[in-house]
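TICKET: design request
STATUS: open
ATTACHED STRUCTURE:
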């Protein structure tokens, strides 16, 4: 496989060049629109501890909704199955920040990877963490084995200043009794999570626990149980890429989670975790180059979960 990975990665830049210019970076959070749209990086971290990188794989970007997997993993570790009494496990089929779905479903978010679901998951975590922002950061630093991972204060501030819809979601959830803590504490914690700045290699390493049954990539401990890792992977497969999850399953066939910063992480269970980054997004909010690179990689390796 090793030679294969290197050979395939060497071809990826040519493949993504074909889709360059087809999308545009997210601009609803102003700080995100300032990114250089021509960037592209890809990193792989294998379960036997080897790393492969191409392009801008070491450049940091805003991980945005990819953070929802870290939030879920931490929360599921603390609260187990009880979490799913407050957040569902169905694809939403509506935009990630939809208010209307929450209304007709009585304040039960469809899944943990839409904003309402992550707000409830953050609320659950606040019950368990002494210093939420620092504990979350330490968790991610440990997973990526990089003490130099940080929140981006500018992105945080920009999210905060343009966070009316997330605030509305939070108030709505609270009106249904599905939020326990102070709304301002939850929003603060949620915006900080989204503002984490990481590189493809940081993320590929950090997500390796999901390719190895929940085992920590760098320590002799469990991040989540084997069953929980399986559950997180299935949620990534069905709900991880906004309302384009069907297209991802069809074309890539791996559990994936994307963010509007242009990053996508993908898991090949038992083998590796992959992170791709390209800031130009398609209509559904996923990186066009990232999706193309993953599709190509999976075609060439012949590995998917199907
Ligand atoms: N911070 C973003 C928001 O809440 C996350 C968007 C995303 O990556 O899906 O709107």
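STATUS: resolved
RESOLUTION: sequence designed for all positions
ATTACHED SEQUENCE:
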């Amino acid at each position: 496989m090793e030679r294969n990975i290197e050979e395939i990665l060497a071809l990826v830049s040519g493949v993504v060049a074909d889709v360059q210019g087809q999308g545009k970076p997210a601009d609803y959070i102003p700080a995100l629109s300032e990114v250089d749209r021509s960037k592209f990086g890809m990193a792989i971290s294998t379960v036997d501890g080897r790393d492969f990188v191409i392009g801008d794989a070491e450049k940091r970007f805003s991980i945005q909704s990819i953070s929802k997997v870290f939030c879920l993993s931490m929360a599921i570790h603390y609260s187990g199955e009880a979490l799913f009494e407050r957040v569902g496990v169905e694809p939403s089929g509506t935009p990630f920040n939809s208010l209307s779905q929450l209304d007709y479903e009585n304040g039960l978010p469809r899944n943990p990877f839409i904003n309402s679901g992550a707000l409830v998951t953050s609320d659950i975590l606040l019950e368990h963490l002494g210093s939420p922002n620092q504990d979350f950061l330490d968790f991610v630093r440990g997973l990526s084995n990089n003490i130099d991972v940080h929140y981006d204060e500018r992105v945080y501030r920009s999210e905060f200043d343009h966070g009316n819809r997330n605030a509305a979601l939070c108030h709505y959830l609270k009106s249904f009794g599905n939020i326990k803590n102070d709304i301002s504490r939850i929003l603060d914690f949620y915006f900080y999570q989204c503002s984490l700045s990481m590189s493809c290699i940081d993320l590929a390493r950090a997500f390796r626990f999901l390719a190895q049954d929940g085992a920590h990539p760098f320590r002799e401990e469990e991040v989540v149980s084997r069953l929980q890792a399986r559950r997180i992977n299935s949620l990534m497969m069905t709900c991880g890429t906004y309302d384009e999850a069907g297209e991802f399953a069809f074309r890539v066939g791996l559990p994936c989670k994307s963010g509007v910063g242009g990053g996508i992480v993908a898991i090949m269970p038992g083998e590796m975790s992959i992170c791709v980054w390209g800031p130009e997004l398609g209509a559904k909010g996923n990186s066009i180059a990232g999706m193309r690179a993953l599709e190509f990689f999976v075609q060439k390796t012949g590995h998917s979960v199907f």
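CLOSING REMARK: The domain at 2-301 is CATH 3.40.710.10 (Beta-lactamase). Residues 126 and 225 are 21 Å apart (CA to CA).
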